[in-house]
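Example record

One chain of 192 residues, shown exactly as stored in the release files.
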Amino acid sequence: MSLLNVWVSPERALIAVDTDAITPDGQHFGMSKLLVLPHAETVFAFRGDRRFMHDLFGRFYLARCDVDLDEIMSGMGEMLASVILGLRQAGEAPLSYEVAVVGWSASEARVRGFWCTGRTDEDDWDLEEITSARVTPWRLPNLRMTPNVEGMRELALQQAEWLRADGDAGGGRLLVAHLSRREIIVRDEGAL
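Predicted structure tokens for this chain:
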């Protein structure tokens, strides 16, 4: 189902994803699981179905008003409900989703991150603020995230191995977004 790792401090954040995806017939291909809204100083990163990712991100991308992290998070419940309703009406099979939203909070004057999880066959969803780090998948009690590219890469290599062993999407290339006030840099950190 992919890897998604986030580290947040008040001044900066690192968001890491892999690019591996699998078609229904088992073919692997590369895709972006990290999308940037530069004008909103916000990064979205996803685990789950790519249509879900596209539809949720699109709601904020196409907004006809100013959006920033604070506005995005205040509207997240309404936007999730809209995406879920659309998927249900289209007859899509139920699926789980995980979304990390990280950006500059004008109201708090700091970088903040949030983790949203749920299922499209349920009306409620869970929201958790990321106060330091969030790692998924997580299998070892001594697993750690070091808040630099080398640490993110080491962690992602282990996760990609687990995912592939389970027959899930995991691997491809490692993409890492570096976010701070007025700057978002996304780098391809190479093959996993």
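Notes: The chain has a mean pLDDT of 94.
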